[in-house]
């Protein structure tokens, strides 16, 4: 008896499941979170930071955590959410690992302080500061800059700067809340203790600026713009129903300010080299990006998303 041969079912074969996650609803921007709960030549990559380094076991745990959780798809925000971010009316989500106080002073302005023995933790904004579906220059045909500032009021709480740090940057979600921004996939940051910049970099970062001191007000921004006309990359706006693009399609610049003046910048795609395991995945304008503030040890700080309070003015 001969075997029967059947035609394949219609349509494409099923996916292997390795697509971006569907986005969860954004946090309610009207509520206050429960605070109880072209640059210089490229820098050389460093294997370790000269200041404090987290334990390797924590890095391994974070790598495993990220491997099991894909980045969330870009979300379509409401008009109210877009308006809130544009006005700087941004909330913060305090992670479980955060040990200290975090409270709102005025719309878009927050004050935080941590205890001297606090472990690494990463605070994220409750809404993205960059919405991939509405802010992308591929959709608007104009460049987009996002920015915020942090005033460092004290470092060390009497124990010395080497036992504490604050980092400011951006992250795509989900992000491991016990890791400083810049250390894991989909994140970048400048760290105050060593003055280095970290882009998806678990190791020692790249030399960037002088260490930040108590009393400094620092800011970090990202500017996305259309690719050069000669670019061969396909230019398709990110959308809610499709996976983010894998081709590089936007130009990206990251800039850092200190006390109201630009203190340095770099081309985002400078990080696309063999030394960086993740390149700029999650950071190239194809995913929503949240403001990220990392802390460990005793630090006092004030965060501002309200442009009227910034020292640097666009």
Task: Briefly characterize the structure.
The chain is mostly beta strands and 314 residues long. It contains 4 helices and 14 strands. The strands form 2 sheets. The chain has a 7-stranded antiparallel sheet, with no helix packed on it. Strands 2-3-14-5-10-11-12 form a 7-stranded antiparallel sheet, with no helix packed on it.
Task: Please tell me about this protein's structure.
A hairpin with a 2-residue loop joins strand 11 (251-258) and strand 12 (261-267). The protein has helices at residues 56-67, 79-86, 132-135, 137-140, and strands spanning 92-93, 100-106, 109-114, 121-125, 144-155, 165-171, 187-191, 196-199, 206-207, 217-225, 251-258, 261-267, 290-296, 299-304. The strands form 2 sheets. A 7-stranded antiparallel sheet has the order 1-4-13-6-7-8-9, with no helix packed on it. Strands 2-3-14-5-10-11-12 form a 7-stranded antiparallel sheet, with no helix packed on it. Residues 12-19 and 29-51 have low confidence and may be disordered. The chain has 4 helices and 14 strands. It is mainly beta and 314 residues long.
